[in-house]
Design brief:
This protein is about 75% helix and about 5% strand. The chain is mainly alpha-helical.
Length: about 230
């Protein structure tokens, strides 16, 4: 069961308990909060069984999107992924900044930056290229957390990114203890790349906020990247 669904169920149980305590004080018929609570839990159950919790994810994200600080964090986080992926030569197929946008594009969860992995290597089975690709993706996965940390001092998102890194190391049969070392290394790499291209990063944030196409974002980064170099 998805974490968002579990959160909603927990909130529903808390609401039912709280309503049982407050209804005598405000003379509210006990049936009203009980029916409302069971109705919400029923909808969550149907959404989980029939739609894999997508409706709950969209609803919670829509409510959170009312806060500008939430929107800004997502934007900075995803722009970090985008810029570092571009700098490392990982093709970007698209990006989303809300759960609704992700749902419309057929992306899971809250979406984010999507990569075109088929263009990465002409010989994906070569060991050396596989290790290089792993290092590149580890850096890209940590770039969102790195961006948030640079801008806000700490990161609130990135749980899924860390999980992807863990799964990748497990796939490559790397020792469990290597995760922390790899994560720190990738974080440092991503932070350095963002800091070295900060002007491009800030321009990309503005462009992504306006839902600029991937191609135009590429050209914008190229313009600012060359400006940094000259």
């Amino acid at each position: 069961m998805q974490q968002t669904t579990l959160n909603v169920i927990a909130i529903g149980i808390f609401g039912m308990t709280l309503s049982a305590l407050l209804t005598p004080i405000f003379n509210i018929p006990p049936a009203i909060p009980a029916l409302a609570t069971f109705g919400i839990l029923g909808l969550v159950t149907v959404d989980t069984l029939s739609f894999q919790g997508k409706g709950t994810t969209v609803l919670l994200d829509w409510l959170a999107q009312r806060r500008s600080d939430y929107r800004d964090r997502i934007l900075h986080h995803e722009a970090g992924h985008f810029l570092v992926a571009y700098l490392l030569g990982i093709p970007i197929a698209g990006y989303t900044l809300t759960a609704w946008e992700a749902l419309k594009q057929g992306q899971p969860g809250l979406g984010g930056v999507q990569f075109d992995t088929q263009q990465l290597s002409p010989n994906p089975l070569a060991i050396g290229e596989m290790r290089l690709t792993l290092d590149r993706f580890c850096t890209v996965w940590m770039a969102g957390i790195a961006a948030e940390t640079l801008v806000y001092g700490e990161a609130e998102g990135g749980i899924d990114d860390c999980q992807k890194l863990k799964e990748a190391l497990r796939l490559f049969q790397r020792p469990v203890g290597e995760f922390t070392t790899k994560q720190r290394w990738a974080m440092l790499q991503a932070q350095t790349m963002l800091q070295d291209n900060w002007e491009a990063y800030e321009a990309l944030i503005k462009a992504m906020a306006e839902r600029t196409s991937v191609g135009d974002c590429y050209r914008l980064i190229q313009d600012h990247y060359h400006n940094v170099e000259t």
